[in-house]
Amino acid sequence: MVEKSYLETGNNKDARNGSVDGIGGDGDFDPSAPPPFKIAEIRAAIPKHCWVKNPWRSLGYVLRDVTVVFALAAAALYLDSWICWPLYWAAQGTMFWAIFVLGHDCGHGSFSNNHLLNNVVGHILHSSILVPYHGWRISHRTHHQNHGNVENDESWVPLPEKIYKNLDLTTRIMRYTVPLPMLAYPIYLWRRSPVFDPVQVLKIHGVPYLIFVMWLDFVTYLHHHGHEQKLPWSVFRQEWSYLRGGLTTVDRDYGWINGIHHDIGTHVIHHLFPQIPHYHLVEATRAAKPVLGKYYREPKKSGPFPFHLFSNLVRSIGEDHYVSDTGDVVFYQTDPRLRNIKSN
């Protein structure tokens, strides 16, 4: 069935070797095959202290990020220079993304063992960046429980071929042209502020919010797309499992940004065990790698800023358009018509 899916998707290298068209695959490794280990083996390899949630440490990260957010806003208002505003927008938008990650930990319960504390902090953090905390928390839990399942996942789900082929050309271009997909998160801010005039609100909060949205879409997309080796998506439940779904996620290195956005790029272990606090993810990943073997894809080392990831983003959005309606394990296919339009 796996070999059939490779042939159906037009990847014309040897399917039995797990190689994909245009990609240097490992002849002995098929990423679509069930892993030879159980999730319990990964769990057992992770040190026990990595599961411990320290609410004071978590609150310390909140204090750090909130302090930086207010300091940036105060500095921007004081300087009020069009030379400084673009720098402020980029920095503050990145900090909004860091705030989102902390609220994300609250939604997973990895912030602390106190359910009330998680919800209160999560509400405050996410409300400050216009994210509906409980709506997102429930949707994100569904994503974790069904990742890699075309029918049930809720985050960056590939379109089945039948649906994709019914899209008009304009919709296809809008959906698969950078940077438009990076603004996919709902953009609805405000109508009027009783404190500042609208232009001031736009400068202080509006543009950083758009930068945050682009970070959100950029990071979450690259957690599930754009790796050098195509990752399988399981269509039917008899082929899908929680472990197999989690193993199709990808770790990313963001250079200096790793510390700012709380190591969210360490994503595989987070997807398998979202209860682990973010400050233990790097150590937990290091401990689990011997068990994961080739199912763990080592992220490419980043410079101070993750400029290398933009090429992954552009290539993936340009190539990963839909998946076949048939087959239990399928890979993304490319719409040649859309590719030709973009290249002209």
From TrEMBL:
The chain crosses the membrane at residues 61-79. InterPro entries: FA_desaturase_dom (IPR005804), FAS_N (IPR021863), Fatty_acid_desaturase (IPR012171). It is found in: Membrane. CDD domains: Delta12-FADS-like. GO terms for biological process: fatty acid biosynthetic process. Residues 1-16 have a biased composition (Basic and acidic residues). Residues 1-25 are annotated as: Disordered. Pathway: Lipid metabolism. One of its GO terms (molecular function) is oxidoreductase activity, acting on paired donors, with oxidation of a pair of donors resulting in the reduction of molecular oxygen to two molecules of water. GO terms for cellular component: membrane. It holds the Pfam family FA_desaturase. Residues 82-190, 195-296 form the Fatty acid desaturase domain. Its main location: membrane. Residues 14-74 form the Fatty acid desaturase N-terminal domain. Keywords: Fatty acid biosynthesis, Fatty acid metabolism, Lipid biosynthesis, Lipid metabolism, Membrane, Oxidoreductase, Transmembrane, Transmembrane helix. The keyword Lipid metabolism applies. Belongs to the fatty acid desaturase type 1 family. This is Fatty acid desaturase domain-containing protein. It comes from Salix viminalis.
